[in-house]
Amino acid sequence: MLNLYYEKQKGDLCRLHSLNAYFGYHKINERLFYELCDEYDSIIDGLKSREMDGFAEGRSIISYILDKYDNKYVFLIPINSYKKAREHIDIDFYNRILRSCKSYFEFNKSHIWINKKIVNKWYKIDSLIGVNLSNIPSINNNGFLIVIENWNLFNTIKYNLNQLK
Q: Bridge partners of 143?
């Protein structure tokens, strides 16, 4: 049987639970998570990450923690319901990146979960509903935090540089 790490929802800590599911074990406890929120907020003025995730410069507490603990870059695709939030994003390009990555966070206005690829199958690990087999990823109306792995970082940077030309 497949063994994926899952934590049941506690309070409003879905960000913490999705991070631990990403790492595959209980890496970050509640105390450390709040310390990291405070640390992140001291860098980005005006955020209150303990209460909610504010995105600043395309970053969030999730991207901050993944950068700090796993040296991973995370690309934000905002929720589609925000006016003009996606008009500058090439959704087709990021659908290709999404399908080639190993994991990505997906969120709506009140919850976040992680999707992981294990042995060529996608699993949704959600602290509210558990672990379920998932469809091939495709960007929909939810928001996405795509974890850019080393092997596709070059293509992402190359694409962005070409867009600047």
A: 107
